[in-house]
Design brief:
By secondary structure, the protein is an all-alpha fold. The chain has a domain at about 25-80: S15/NS1, RNA-binding (Helix Hairpins). It has 4 helices and no strands. Helix 1 crosses helix 2 (about 25-45) and helix 2 (about 25-45) packs antiparallel against helix 3.
Length: about 90
Amino acid sequence: MPLSSSQKKNIIKEFQTAAGDTGSPEVQIALLTNRIDRLTGHLKEHGHDAHSRRGLLSMIAKRRRLINFLSKVDKKRSSEIEKRVGLKS
C-alpha cells in the first residue's frame, strides 16, 4: 500500500531544506526509508514474496547511493540525515 498524500507531505515538510523543497537528497532518503520500513514489515509476514524482496533491495541500494552522494557533497548533512532517519553510520 503506497503512502497517502498527507503522510508524504508530512515527511517532506519534516525533512525539506527550504520551503517548497521536494527533491533534495534528504527528502528522498526520508521517503525511501519510510517505504523500506513498510516493506520490511510486509516481508516479515510474507517471507516467500520474492518480487517484493527484489524491490526492497533496489530501494536500499538507491538510498545508499543517495547517502554516498550526499557524503561527497557535504559530510555533515549526510551524517545528520542518517541520524534523523535512524540509520547506522
